[in-house]
Structures are given as structure tokens and as C-alpha cells.
Design a protein that fits this description.
CATH architecture of the largest domain: 3-Layer(aba) Sandwich
Distance between the termini: 24 Å
CATH class of the largest domain: Alpha Beta
Radius of gyration: 23 Å
Strand order of the largest sheet: 2-1-3-4-5
Strand content: 5-15%
Shape: elongated
Order of helices and strands: EHEHEHEHEHHHHH
Oligomer: single chain
Number of strands: 5
CATH topology of the largest domain: Rossmann fold
Number of helices: 9
Length: about 220
Amino acid sequence: MRVDTYPLREAGPTELMSDEPTVFIVDDDEGARNSVRALVRSMGVEVETFSSAESFLEELDPASFGCLVTDVRMLGMSGIELQEKMVAEGVKLPVIIITAHAETALTVRAVKQGAVTVLEKPCRDYELYDAIRAALNQDVENRDKIREQLLFLEKLNTLSDQERVVMGLMVEGLANKVIARRINVSVRTVENRRQRIFEKTETDSLAKLIRMVIESDRS
């Protein structure tokens, strides 16, 4: 589902664990929070505001859907420090950084940590609108990928020990004859195990199998 189709529904203070996407706004400037909040509400997306990074972290469910919009300079933890803490704790929410003091080093630091974008104050409504839409869609894509990886791991658990060995050698790029010599079985046995691996993992090519194995190792 694209973010354009989400219904308007204002989130209450205890709804941070909702499966609906929420735009979390963290800024110690009340005027800025209210401005971004109004924009998000016009998009028909749930919104929650926080005056500090610390209060946001106290309430956040790591499994929350949506994205974060935060300022760089705040009392206490900065927006960049908040982003880095989320990354360190495995929180996957896409982040939009807003700053009145755009610097190359700051932008590089934020982007390296996975920020969707860094917007300079005062940013135009359409710039923030587009950034939020992109962040929410990225969150959907990220979660679809995570779901795909979890399903793949379940399929891997159906492989026998012998099939796992063959799969590992396949991922290394070894040919069937080489694998057969390596594990001291016939080429036919390797071919049979290879076929069962494709069937059990529901992959239709070696390239896809390798990609899924690599991605699952990173998760």
C-alpha cells in the first residue's frame, strides 16, 4: 500500500505500537513541531510529536511503522545522536533530518547512517511532503524485505544437513563436479540435492539463491 492511500487518523499518546504508519516528529521548537504536524495530518497519516529525543526513545516501540522527522540541534540529545542510537539499537525507522545549520560533514554523517535526506530550514512544504512520502514508502519496502528474509530463513530450516553443505558450496560458486569431489559423493547426488534445495527454498535460479543467502546473513 502506498502512503497516498492511508486514511486520516490522529494517533493518541498511547498508540505507538499501532501497525499503521506514524510520522514521529522530534523537535524542541514547539512552533516547528506544530508546523510539521499540520503537514503530516494533511497527508492522512498518524502523527506523534516529542519535545526531546529522550522522551521519544522512552515511548518508542522498536517495531513501529513509519518514519522520524527530527531537528539536529536540540537540548539534550541531538537529532544526529538520536539517529545513531536508533541504528545501534536496530530500529529501522527511516529518518529525515532538518537543520538550520547545514554543513557538509553533518550531511555526510547523517546519510552514512541511512538518513533519507537532510533538509535545510526553512524548507518548503512540498520538499518535506515529498521527503515524508519517500520515507514512508521506504519503510514499507524495508519491512517487505525483512518479511521475505524471515520466510527464507524458515525455508532454510527445512534443509537437511547434507543439503546445507551443498548449498554452502553452491553459494561459493563451485560447479557440481567440484562439489561432488569436495564432499566425496557422486555428481548425480549433488544434482539431486541441488534440486531439492531449489524446491525447498522456492528459488528458481542460483543467482536468487545467492542473493537471499547473502541478505539473510546480513539481517
